[in-house]
Predict the structure.
Amino acid sequence: MLTEIFIKPFADMVEAPDFLLQVLWEGLVSGILYALIALGFVLIYRSSRIFNFAQGIMVVFAALTLVGLHAMGVPAWVSVGLTLLVMFGLAVAIERVVLRPLVGQPDIILFMATIGVTLFLIGLGEIIFGGENKVMITEELGIPTGSILFEPWGGLLILEQKDITAVIVAALLVVALLLFLNKTRMGRAIRALGDDHQAALSVGISLQTIWVLVWFIAGIIALVTGIAWGARAGVSFALEVIAYKALPVLMLGGLESISGAIIGGLMIGMLEKLFEIYWGQPLLGGNTETWFAFVLALIVLLFRPQGLFGEKIIERV
Amino acid sequence: MKHITRLAAVAALGAVMGTGVVAQELFAPNLSYRTGPFAATGIPLMNGQRDYMLMLNARDGGIGGLPVNFEECETGYSTEKGVECYEKTKGQAIVTQPWSTGITLQVLPKTNVDEIPILAPGYGFSPMADGKVFQWAFNTPASYWDAASMILQYLEAQGDLSGKKIAFLHLDHPYGKEPLPFLELKAAEDGFELLPIPVGLKEMQNQSAQWLQIRRERPDYVVMWGWGAMNAGAITEAVKTKFPMDNMIGVWWAGHDADLKIVGAEGKGYKSISWSYPALDAAVLADIKTHVVDAGNSLSNEEEMQGVFYNRGLVISMILAEGIRAAQEHTGNAQITASDLRWGLENLNVTDARLAELGMTGMVPPFQTTCANHTGHSGGWMLEWDGEKFIKTSDLLQAEADAIQPLEAAKAAEYAEANAPWAMSETCDAPS
Amino acid sequence: MFYRTAGQFKTSYESDQALFPVRQDAILLAVILVFAWVIFPLTASEFTFQTLLIPILIYALAAMGLNILTGYAGQLSLGTAAFMGVGAYACYKMVTLMPWLNPVVAILLSGVFSAGVGVAFGIPSLRIKGFYLAIATLAAQFFLVWLFEKWAWLYNYNASGAIQVPNLTMFGVYVAGPQADSWVQYYLVLAIVSVMTVLCINLTRGNLGRTWKATRDVDIAAELIGINLMKSKLTAFMVSSYVVGVAGALFVFMWRGAAEPNLFDIPLSFRILFIAIIGGLGSILGNYLGAILIVGLPVVLGTLPAALGIPISSSMVEHINVMMVGGLIVFFLIIEPHGLAQLWRLIREKLIIWPFPH
């Protein structure tokens, strides 16, 4: 039993290094996507202390709008533009209707409100788009679809071109976002708001504008995530469950940290895949990915209650 | 509360009929799911079922002169909603169509007390075939164990199975686990290695871990028990990992055109066992076109209507309609009760001649049910994806009755014992 | 006018602290109890029992369990459904291993198991707070549901992996399983829920309840005035999980009749959280109000179009239903973030001085 836990998995890894690389690659791709969703959470949390559960459904909504518009005969890239407009409209609507009346309420109330928004969007989306599984317009957007084969150590490593595209686009998005947050006026305003609401307000930063902006950025991230995931397995409401995967990433990385979301996402993506393949499937009957990330994050939190990169919690009475 | 609901219902009916008199009709509700994660595979089936009944109403004025009220009660594949729908409709309904293995399991014991037939064509609990124990349950025309048996036979025809490795990729849910007892039995008998690979409900769209396992274990065949978003996920992963499509076979619920269209030509060679086939030149489709589609009453579309699932929906409604017709002929009344319909469903005899009369030649193999055999074991065909659509690739396959029946009887007895006291029909010979 | 308190004098602290300082409250409760114990069972149809009365009571009980943890002790939990699952599976194992066991005893005992599991998953709360803790409870949620799926012993190696409630009798009457009558189950659920409610009211008004509230409000301050935080938090997890576990056993044995593992997945947890929050955190009454709204509303919405003769497909009703529930959650949070219980409190205060404005 002990050898099966401590020795055999590592022996397997060494024995088939190409397979290990494949596992790590698959983990990396999932991890990138977890990180993207977590990024949407972090942005909104930093600027408004709202734990936005609706991020998952925003991914679905963005992807569905894109596919739906294209099905109506709108050219692919025009659809992307229109989808962004829709996401902007959604951001404004959420800010006006839901957030503004709830300013100053306890966190849990705001959290609940975003779950309410989630349910509302599920119902609305099913009325507009129907529940069928749809094909993401991968080719129309110019995303390459083939795969590249490598043969390291006489084995086989398959890299999907759309996964590579997803990784590159995600990386670019993160860089753009970091530049925006650090170098532009607006971006600094968002960070200022995250640090201290009242101080930010007193130097003339408009809460409303920033909130709309932040929700819009979360919408853009949702669209990118939606395209990347949709290209892997089609677009349907079942996609919504991936939002849960972002939660342990947040715990691990810290709710306020952008770099934490990215590093946490990649770590969880790869570790859960490794655990599932080398320990979960042979020893535990598989499907450990549903909980592994949560338990891992829980253990980390026991030692660092604010996550790996979160702000130190200082408590005062 | 009871009176208010009833009054309201009467008032509503009156408003609809414009007369105030309750109309004579056959109330056959369908617990549909056009929402939720499984809606993608549910919608074409529900559309097919609905269109067939609407066609009968428009063409023949219903069955035996009475229109069929084919009301849908939306469950979203949620067991809770399903039970609510069952309770809501059971007062007047002559049949329950639960449409999910979860709801079936939950409603099954209730129907045995409430005495309403439960019609679960090609799904539900395989031991339901034993009509002596499951007096009120019907999984006509074929059960999941039939499916597993036919798939194994098809594979055996490609070469001896002993020493081979078969991966069983399934939804981690009562539905996906259903064929396991039979597959385990056959694995011991035929000497192949069975490797069950569960896919959690949350992993349906991201099966990379499962397919990495398949890559590592290198099975000779993958048998898939998938549903909803899981099918598309599995097929895209299979294409990605370069698993030979010819060696991948799904159950009938994993043979949905839209799932395969996502991969298109790359999915060529993928197979699915099926007891229904879209025979597009069948007369019944022309009738549906004139009476339902052209009248603007169909919820379906051109593309969907050519698919396997829509046409299977038609066959499912045909089974129910034939059951009603048999019951009407037996009792001599057009207005039948739930227990009349049970007799009807137990005495189905869908022959080739009857299929020709119905305009459904080639859409389903002929089958016959009896009091003791509620499945009918129609057998099925192996369908293959040719890059654009599913085509028949085998002759009619028949499940191995010898291997299945003892297992059915044993599991049925086990069920009855766990649910004691369980009302059983002592004899199946007595005239009812 | 109806709620005038004039003439009801309090002459001692005891009477001021009584459960019903205003006589009319007691009368109102008596009326409600008469409805619950006599009038509803006499008039309700099978449909009403199965889709309104029984589920409302069970959901209210589950929400009450959650409310003790979240509303009184301030520990946000998203894993309620998993603890219900522990109760349900424990009850199933007990009645199948020991068929002679009285079903009510089995249901009450099953809470003990969920209390144990609850304490184990409550230990991280000593270090983790706020949203981090909420996500940590999700670890319990996902891990336990996975365990229900994989640990075949729990469902007696049944091929389908689902548990089926056997027919159980008590004093010769069927109380669970397909043979049981709805009204019998209703009375049983009502009795258990009533007893638990009285216990919860007393607990939350007593010493333990005050300790919890102090922990909720400012835990460091509570520690400084000598409250043992570990004891306070863990007892909250224990009591809460016990109530939730009993609710879970009732859920499967007195209502659903069968269960598969993913029944106890996250949507159920959220549903109970909605009930607790819309009803009002830190309130016992609120759980009932929330349950009536969240359970009753979809049923009413579902039957409404047919009753009014509006031709609308049932899937459309379902879509609108989901939208309405989402919209209503936001709506209620905006008009009264402290829930329906607070709304009732305000109405009652208005009623006491009505018809005079001051």
Remarks:
- Chain B has two domains: 23-143+279-379+410-418, 145-277+383-406.
- Residues 1-22 of chain B have pLDDT under 50 and may be disordered.
- The radius of gyration of chain B is 21 Å.
- Residues 308-331 of chain B form the longest helix (24 residues).
